[in-house]
Amino acid sequence: MRRREILAAPLALGSLNAAEQPRPHLFVNRARLDRVKQKISGSHSELWKMVRENAGRLVGRMPPSKYDNQGEMRTAGRGIPWQALMWLVAGEPAYRDSAKNWMLRICEYPRWEQNNSLAAGECLFGVAIGYDWLYDQMDQGERKLVRDKLALQAEAMLNAPPVHHDRWLANHNHVEHLGVAAAGFALRGEVPRAEEWIRQAQAVFRKALEFSGPDGGSTEGHQYWAYSAESILRYAELARDLLKEDLYASQWLKSIPDFIIHSTLPDFTAENCVMSYGDSHRSYDSHGPAHILYRAAAEYRNPHAQWLAQEMLRRGVGRTAFCSWASLLWYDETLEPVPLSRQPVFSHSQDVGWVTGRGAWEPGAVLTGFRCGPMHGHKVQKYYQGLAKPEEVAGGHGHPDVNGFQIYALGKWLAIDPSYERPKWTRNHNTVLVNGKGQLGEGQTWFDRKAVLAARATSAILKAEHRAGYDYTVGDAMNIYPPAAGLTRFRRHFIFVRPDFIVIADELAAQGPSQFEWRMHAEQSLEQRGGARFVVRNGEVAMDVEFLLPQALEAKATGSLLTVTAGPVANCLVVAVLHPRKADAPAAVAKLESVQEGRLGIAIGGRRKLVLDLAGQNVTLV
Questions:
Q1: pLDDT at 440 over 80
Q2: Of 109, 248, 362, 426, which sits most exposed with the smallest number of CB within 10 A?
Q3: CA–CA separation, 562 and 416 (whole Å)
């Protein structure tokens, strides 16, 4: 269902006159402000310190002036709430005056970048917040200038909708329509068209939650997930306060803490925080996620989310994030935090196809990640399959990374994902090339959604099992490779044997004799120890990599890339054992003891034996 059909549906908003609209009313009112003021010297003191630090970097300056530049205009819009909040809570005139100057200057610009872009959405939101929070500090002329500019820009967003306007899961859509909604709520009762702006935003956010899967995740990784999550949560707060509409029944919203928690590194820092995928990084940088966690913790009484939010800010994660001012408003000090050590060590985000397993929650533990799933998740895939000619409903920050894996151990990255890349290539992930070809979706700046849709291609995790001694995941690449590759089967069995062994068995088959190229990227260096044995090195940490099958293979290490090529053959079974360890510890010992009728017997570490039944997808550890 496209945008024009969604927006044709009637949505009851009610009505409100300007005289009935007390200020402020966006996110805060006088009663809420009084409660916050009482807490800033006690339970909220650290959050108040953070707000003051960030606002202090902006006060007395003027906003960026290059109104055609997306980055500068996004910065301009984001600077207003920090300073205006300082005025509301502390009553310090310097912050009021600076926030007003930012707002008035931005409203003098002839346009906000492209007017229908991320930058325009950020400016709409920031200026709308300033208008509401500083309303009684402006004279009539100033109010008119801001009001007219907000109306002009909101109409521009509606009349020339952005590229992503009907991609319901795209972060662009959420940011842009949050701006439209904020403008509508700020001017409701003053500008008749404000009701229409709210109506459109309401439709977009309802649709976004309808298409979001139940696991709280995103196929674009954690940073782009956070950009959407913070926008959706801000809209949810506005909708509940001002429309009396409660969006928090959404299972996606309920699950967002789990998506963060289970990908958090055991010894996370501000610069090295999360195991992710797609166009996402190891740090959250600009988009939290402490404020996201605080909101979810308060709403769903999630003590683990509360603990992680507090610990993240203590370690410097997200202290300068663009929307972290919301932490001051969203933190509920009555919820007692509970450490993550009481959480499961295994997680399966079933909709997006993301599995993590760890040896423990303590620093130094092994953390593994495994990716396999449809381009935009299983819920959206089902929608695509029901259409004769599907059009994408999400963005292009995903990667051609099906059956890819990552390994982090003893505080070091060992097998890595490429993070943000342009263009996007399967060869940059820890997966397989077939006859030199990667997966559908590769080769363009943004993930090629049209190629995947045209082929009706998908992939899936067939099994994700957690046992006391191991985690066992099976990913099926299905038809995600182009027909020219000739692939008929690629099932990856990924087994994490606690605390520190990983067994990977790949079932590969093609229409005729083919070359299968197994690839793994290391963080730093690789050494070949002879034959099919390698060692990854990263400082004082190493990882042994030994290939037990096939017997005929070509293996080599080039810089930080390990490739193992088998073929030309029509069928192939590649089996590797990986063992992270301290660099000065003895190398791992792995031995293939038996191969019989699809059952592998592998001795690992001289202590245990793993039996893998490929057809039955069953693991026995003795």
A1: yes
A2: 362
A3: 12
Taking only Cα atoms into account, the Rg of the chain, rounded to an integer number of angstroms, comes to 26
Our measurement of the distance from residue 331's CA atom to the centroid of its chain's CA atoms, rounded to an integer in Å, reads 22
- pLDDT of 9 over the 70 cut: no
Residue 587 DSSP one-character state: P
Residue type, 251: Q
**Confidence category of residue 115, pLDDT binned at 50, 70, 90:** confident
Task: Judge whether residue 244 has pLDDT over 50.
Answer: yes
Alpha-carbon distance 299 to 330, whole Å? 9
Dihedral of CA atoms 273, 275, 281, 286 in degrees, nearest 10, equals -40
Mean pLDDT across the stretch 2-27? 63
Tokens standing for residue 127 = 């200026």
Name which of 395, 470, 413, 411 is nearest 171 in CA terms: 395
Among 568, 577, 578, 567, CA closest to 542: 578
Separation of first and last alpha carbons in the chain:
52
Rounding to the nearest 10 degrees, give the CA dihedral for residues 225, 229, 159, 450: 30
Q: What is the mean pLDDT of residues 404-425?
A: 96
CA dihedral 215, 218, 219, 223 (to 10 degrees): -140
Name 470's bridge partners: 497
DSSP annotation of 418 reads -
Alpha-carbon distances, residue 578 vs 262, 496, 505, 606 (angstroms): 22, 9, 11, 14
Question: What are residue 220's DSSP bridge partners?
Answer: none
* Dist. CA 344–CA 348, nearest whole Å: 11
The values of phi and psi at residue 201, to 5°, are -60, -40
How do 525-530 and 460-466 pair as beta strands?
unpaired
Tokens of 532: 């099919």
Count of beta carbons in the 10 Å neighbourhood of residue 177: 29
Dihedral over Cα of 429, 430, 431, 436: its sign: positive
